[in-house]
Amino acid sequence: MDPGVPSRAPYRPAVIGQLVIDLKSGGLVRYMGEWCGLMWVRPVGGGTEVPVHPGGLAPAPDSGRSNSI
Known about the structure:
The chain has a domain at 19-59. Helix content is 0%, strand content 35%. The protein has no helices and 5 strands.
């Protein structure tokens, strides 16, 4: 890492239920919270929550719909 360039903090969703992008799968998921240093997400249509390491999420593109539950 270049010492002259400040590192950027990982993206942190603002609210539970917010739509975000899982960078590993590329899928649109819902942010469910943090526990034990991991962020937990669930598929938009429902399903099992899975852990994501910090830095593994990105904001979902604004598609003109509500971005939370």
